[in-house]
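Sanity check. The docking grid for adenosine monophosphate depends on where the pocket ends up, so I'm generating a full predicted complex first rather than guessing from homology. Inputs follow.
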Amino acid sequence: MKVLVIGGGGREHALVWKMAQSPKVEKIFVAPGNGGTRDFAENVPIGANEVEELLTFAREKKIDLTVVGPEEPLLLGIVDRFEEEGLPIYGPNRRAALIEGSKSFAKGLMKKYGIPTARYEEFTSYEEAAEALREAHYPLVLKADGLAAGKGVVIVRSQAEAEKALREMMVDRIFGKAGEKIVIEEFLEGEEVTLLAFVDGKTVLPMEEAQDHKPVFDGNRGPNTGGMGAYSPVPHLPSGWKEMAYRTILFPIVEAMWREGIHYRGVLYAGLMLTQEGPKVIEFNCRFGDPEAQVILPRLENDLLEIMEKSLEGRLHEVTLTWKEEACLTVILTSPGYPGAYPKGLPISMKGELSPELLLFHAGTKEEAGRLVTAGGRVLAVTALGSTIYEAREKAYREVGKIDFEGMHYRTDIGLKG
Ligand code: AMP
Ligand code: GLY
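Predicted complex below; grid placement will be based on this.
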């Protein structure tokens, strides 16, 4: 098979790495890829959002399967376009992707079908939102509707904090158009966990869980990022939570979409809070998580391409997922300033040999004049498997110590809870 992977982050490097192990694979292309994907695939200089160019490429190269990593091309309708042209592609179509692309669509669907999530209210008027905040009890959560690369969420603990955040979103438009509509949400307390599932429209196959670390600094301080590190499995969760999440959330949302005429096909990401009352939805995403993919894919024993092919045939019920007993942990190295503005093009150096056991997934890197340099906010995902989380953590951090670039930042507490 000839495969085209779309995207260029750590998640896509992990996808390409995993697919390269499939005996079905003859050649992998990745668009645009990064400084690490070239080890397993041919990087193609087409941006992930250039739908028509990607379509032309897939047709000319006779690609047997295109796999979409990030949400943006999905929301641009890349799956709809490929399907119109009869080209096989794995991922949800545009309407299905709205489960991530529009918080108000996702919230509306959950309300209609009784799927547990935080109570919320939507506003398009700054004055009305400010009024609601004056009468509210804190803490609360403010969210910009639409895509904001995981950064459009602010937890506010007082009215003053809330008003400042609201002004930034709706007046100063720090998240751009995503701030036209905002959601004010109940603050959920509990342990947070990511549960991903393969979905073929009807069958929902949950994967092993993972825990992300969103705030930029140790101890969950500072602004939210796309994710600073992750590990899997997550041992300290209440027993039976996963069955309950499948029964009350994952299966019902896929069935709800089916009833609305939306056949969800692809990876469904459920960000859950395990509250006293059971799991509740924080958000759905329409794709693998980043960095969750980097710790889940190394634990997956199945052939990923076979899972995707079966999904496209509507035969996912024939698949049984099997997992390595080992734990996996990833530490993200970021550019100085991330998630705010950051410099690019900083040379990356390695002190000594990296362990051959290490899985070094590149996120924002590229090769420039024969040198590896930074090219994004999240630069590298330093990933290790181990017989325990403790061991995976020790191995990953040992390798982190060998990597350096100017202003490199990372959290030192990834996986500590686990
Ligand atoms: P989101 O982009 O919606 O996943 O939100 C980013 C992060 O904000 C989540 O991973 C949570 O840690 C936190 N968060 C979002 N919504 C809530 C909520 N209703 N209650 C508590 N924390 C939340
Ligand atoms: N790690 C969070 C996300 O992929 O959205």
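Relevant for the grid: The chain has four domains: 2-93, 125-180, 191-318, 327-404.
Also worth noting: The chain has twelve helices and 24 strands.
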